[in-house]
Design a protein that fits this description.
Blueprint (H helix, E strand, L loop, with lengths): L1 H22 L8 H23 L12 H17 L2
Amino acid sequence: MVSSILCFGVLGFTFVFYVRLALSFFPARPGPMMQVRELAFSATEPALMPLRRAIPPLPGAAAGIGVAELAMFLILFVLQAIICR
């Protein structure tokens, strides 16, 4: 019971994280997608901020997926493998 609730939470966060990654490649424009973008960013930023502090950015990396996002992707992958069997 507890593992299925945790699995649901991890999968939900993973989905929101993927939405954040996808929307980060497009310019922010006013409208309904802006609200979705803000929701995805505000939901995932508390988890990404400690990773950004711990992992320095790559030199010369101005745009695209950063190291913190890749680390979060790996963390979510491992959590899904452990919790969602």
